[in-house]
Design brief:
- This protein has 339 residues and is of the alpha+beta class.
- The chain folds into 2 domains: 159 residues, no CATH class; 146 residues, Beta Barrel (OB fold (Dihydrolipoamide Acetyltransferase, E2P)).
- 17% of the residues lie in helices and 42% in strands.
- The chain contains 7 helices and 21 strands.
- The strands form 4 sheets. Strands 1, 9, 10, 11, 13, 14, 15, 16 and 21 form a 9-stranded mixed β-sheet that branches.
- Helix 4 runs parallel beside helix 5.
- It starts with a strand and ends in a 5-residue tail after the last strand.
Length: 339
């Protein structure tokens, strides 16, 4: 059975194979009724450029700037095309505008996610066809990981301005300590290695922030060790394309590594049929959390893997040294609460 995510604080970095995947899945299956619950309706009265529109709402007219994306100015390469693409989507239409954190910025513009009534997000549509690039605003980044992924796909496919204007991907954001600043969603992608990690080398510091499944804010600082590097195993997260799992030394046996695993188990309910009680699987699934020792390969005891999965994560080199077989984020400081 597959580990769905890792656990610890219900996992922050562990929403693995879920945040970006779930956002992408939501985008693909988003229905008109879904977006109506996300924000309020407005009428587009003017298209200013590729990422700014004028809207009328409740008798008030104001500018809306698309969150998470940016387009060239009208006098720059692909600026006119971006405006044209934007106008084709929204000109004169009723849209739904969703606020993230900021209501109005200092210039009086409202940063928003903008949806068409058919369920499509305009911010996403512009990225898909290479009419815009991703632009992170750390205080308003609810969907940034999925927007970044769409931009990367358009860049790889050389769509729109990526081919015509030689656009470059957004530069990595660093915090006050010079550490690469990531969100849980940046890493929570079903790929071998998120492109943003290409800016890192072994030993670089990483600050990871996010929100756990129960809504609690979470952050921490880690040291990044890519697959193939030699590490002294300690508390941290291992990452592979299907997930994140917290591992640490067993407090009762420091020579042993344990993993915090979470999986869904199907509930069983009892029904009475012809006077007999029969147990049948229900549709309900509950989270089961456990701390399990890492397993060793029967054919090569130096190789360890995660319990409940076939993911080989490290080779034991002896004397407390391991060769990482997947990316490892060594925990240094932050809000990570080890049991």
């Amino acid at each position: 059975m597959k580990v769905r995510r890792l656990s610890v604080m219900t996992v922050a970095v562990l929403s693995c194979a879920t945040l970006v995947m779930s956002e992408t899945a939501q985008a693909q299956t988003r229905r008109p009724s879904d977006v109506l619950a996300l924000g309020s309706t407005a009428k587009v009265t003017n298209v200013i450029d590729g990422d700014t529109i004028e809207v009328s709402q409740n008798g008030n007219t104001f500018l809306v700037n698309y969150l998470g994306v940016t387009t060239p100015g009208l006098d720059a390469c692909y600026g006119p095309q971006a405006k044209q693409a934007n106008a084709a989507l929204v000109q004169g239409k009723t849209v739904i505008i969703e606020q993230d954190t900021t209501d109005f910025n200092a210039s009086g513009t409202a940063p928003r996610y903008v949806y068409l009534v058919d369920g499509r997000m305009v911010n996403e549509e512009l990225l898909k066809v290479g009419q815009a690039v991703a632009s992170t605003q750390l205080t308003d980044a609810k969907y940034q990981a999925s927007l970044n992924a769409l931009a990367a796909q358009a860049q790889q496919a050389k769509k729109g301005g990526w081919a015509r204007c030689g656009w470059q991907a957004e530069a990595p954001v660093k915090d006050a300590n010079g550490c690469l600043a990531l969100t849980v969603a940046d890493l929570d992608q079903r790929v071998e290695k998120p492109s943003i990690l290409g800016a890192l080398k072994d030993g670089d510091c990483v600050t990871i922030a996010g929100t756990t499944e129960d809504g609690a804010a979470w952050s921490g600082q880690f040291i990044y060790h890519p697959a193939g590097s030699t590490v002294t195993q300690s508390a941290g997260f291992v990452r592979w394309k299907d997930g994140f799992v917290l591992i640490e030394r067993n407090p009762e046996d420091v020579s042993q590594l344990v993993a915090h695993v979470t999986q869904y188990r199907q509930q069983v309910r009892e029904v009475v049929f012809n006077g007999q009680v029969i147990k049948v699987p229900s549709r309900e699934r509950v989270l089961f959390q456990a701390v399990l020792p890492l397993e060793r390969d029967p054919g090569d005891a130096s190789v360890v893997r995660l319990p409940v999965t076939n993911t080989w994560i490290a080779r034991d080199l002896g004397n407390g040294q391991y060769q990482a077989l997947v990316d490892f984020f060594e925990y240094k400081t932050g809000d990570l609460k080890l049991p």
